[in-house]
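Q: Sequence in, structure out?
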Amino acid sequence: MNLAKVMGTVVASQKDEKLDGLRFLLLATAGPDGQLSGSSVVAVDAVGAGPGEYVLYASGSSARQTRVTDGRPVDAVVMAIVDSWEVEGEERYHKGRDD
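A: Exactly. Output:
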């Protein structure tokens, strides 16, 4: 799993029919301190995440193991919305407080 922040959405009106009905999110990968790394990924949204939220996403073959992505040609999927995280006992992020 990887940590990222949702930066926006991606719309593709022309796509393979196996991708119909899926929502695509533009993610900026993040480190344990919440700082964005500068790299990005487009992922299928399996949980209803929105812009500004921190999420966990899976990539590679693991991305095809959710109910939403099973049997679909995807390489990244958002499968959790982060509520909080801590590093070495120090809370680094808490949803709603640090947004």
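The CA atoms of residues 63 and 69 lie 7 Å apart.
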